[in-house]
Amino acid sequence: MTPQAEICNTDENNNITVLNLYTLIVAGDNTGTWEDLDNSGATGNFDALDFIGIIPGAYRFRYTTGAAQAPCPNQSYTITVNVSDCSCPSVATTAPAPMCNDNAVLNLNTITITSEPGRWYLISTPSGSNPATLNGFTFNATNRDPGTYEVEFRLEPAPPAGCPTSSTQTILVSLLSATFKPMLKFVIQMRMQ
What we know:
The protein is mainly beta. It has one helix and 13 strands; from the N terminus they run E-E-E-E-E-E-E-E-E-E-E-E-E-H.
């Protein structure tokens, strides 16, 4: 199952507003049923769901398989449809995975969904005297203070009035404990022998 999809809420500039949720099923049973968990307001059937005029935001949909054989139960999967006001430029980014500070370098382009021009900023750091650095699109917390960092992608140049200007993501950097490092080294040495 593809975990998320992007769709527009306006058909200006030939933007796509209709989504077939069944195309998000990448393997397995496609005879199941869909449910709009957040009552998005999208109209039509789940094979042609129209998001025109829907308020921008993230909406959850649940798919439940329909072909399980006893004693196995049908499985449910939740996906997110991100609805954007496509008359505005996109500021879409996605959350990064947590990191350990022994090798904590993240190319922020890998979490940038939008293709619009912009720049990343480090807007919040945890307490400590050795915070992570941000150079262009490279976030580096290697041997730096562990904790919660916030980075923000800002459109540059700024979009028209009334459009979102930025997207913020949280990066969790954990301290790789001193007791874990020797164990990790031991496991790597054991596998190499």
